[in-house]
Amino acid sequence: MKITARGATDAANIVLFWPENLPDEGDAMLASDPIALVESLRDQGKLIWFLCDGDGEYTVAIFVRSLVPEDLMVHCRDEERIPVLAVRGVGYFGGMEYMFKQYPKLLTKYPAMCEQVLTPEGTYAARVYRTEVPESLYESWLAAQAGVGAKRLWDIHGVIAAGAVASVFAMFLAFFFVPWTVWFCILAIASALVVCAVAISHTNWYKLVARARVALEKSYPSYVVHLE
Q: Is the pLDDT of residue 150 over 90?
């Protein structure tokens, strides 16, 4: 069985947790000292605390009593072994800051930050990996799945979007320092770049690459968990 999930963090901490594994006073403990609680649960084999490089979106593939495919295994690094991992109830993968026992207040507000993980209950031995997917694989995958033309349009959109952000920032910065004629030129450039970026994002080619990226994340996730 393979289970995939997506999550995100604004505090550079990603976890896979099961609310039923938290103590009754878990919500209060999370509010006062979340790191201490997470460390305790990790040491008890009641959650997985992943190595994390920073804020952003992450994906996980969980293989339950089935082998990790060889083409994925070759990209797995930083192996961590958990001799006993208790799985109880519905799990969640995402930022540590969205953990909860009974009251998922923050997660209710931002549901995309933690995705449910429906793993069969039980006690497992776990191996946890972080993946390193080469840029060449990323580029070839998108080109093969979406087409070279769509991939090229995606790259162009990235350049235009970066230019739009820079020009908007320059417009606000220049408001007090340049003549009105110059400022309106910057405004025109910023507006054109924003309109162009939005227009590209609505094309079928762009959507093809977006779907290919989601498929890539499922086949080559940020983390791999092997449960036996």
A: no
Round to whole Å and give the CA distance between 131 and 221: 7
**174 and 116 share one domain:** no
DSSP assignments along the chain, one per residue: -EEEEEEEESSS-EEEE-GGGS-TTHHHHHHH-HHHHHHHHHHTTSEEEE---SSEEEEEEEEESSPPPHHHHTTEEEEEEEEEEEE-S-EEEEEGGG--SS--HHHHHSGGGEEEE-PPPEEEEEEEEEE---HHHHHHHHHHHH-HHHHHHHHHHHHHHHHHHHHHHHHHHHTTTS-HHHHHHHHHHHHHHHHHHHHHHTSHHHHHHHHHHHHHHHHS-SEEEEE-
Please give the residue range of the domain that contains residue 189: 136-214
Find tokens 């924003």 and name the residue: 194
User: Do 172 and 197 lie in a common domain?
Assistant: yes
**pLDDT(131) > 90:** yes
CA atoms within 13 A on the CB side of 184: 3
Among 131, 114, 156, 113, smallest CA distance to 220 is for 131
When divided into structural domains, the chain yields a total of: 2
Q: Are 226 and 126 in contact (CB under 8 A)?
A: yes
User: Residue 220 corresponds to which tokens in the numbers above?
Assistant: 């080559």
Asked if residue 117 and residue 72 are part of one domain, the reply reads yes
Is the domain of 103 the same as that of 140?
A: no
Over the stretch 163-179, which tens digit does the pLDDT of each residue have?
A: 888 888 888 887 777 78
